[in-house]
Amino acid sequence: MEAQWEEVQWEEMQWEEMQWLEVQCEEMQWEEVQWLEMQWEEVQCEEMQWEEVQWLEVQWEEVQWLEVQWEEVQWLEMQWEEVQWEEVQWEEV
What we know:
Blueprint: H1 2-92
């Protein structure tokens, strides 16, 4: 009878240990899920930053194009001043 009692106690200990291991496993899986969610958020953040970098590159190209246009405008203003000066010289003659 005592052998059966010890066997029952041993089986209860095995059951408790199995329950404890299942809980530990579930906790580890939950932590892994949380870690993966953090990684996913980080990837999304990096994608947004990459899109922002690409947008900034386009803006930079536009700024460079506008600088070229501005230089052209300045050159045309100089040409216009030169033409006006020549007209004044021509009128004086």
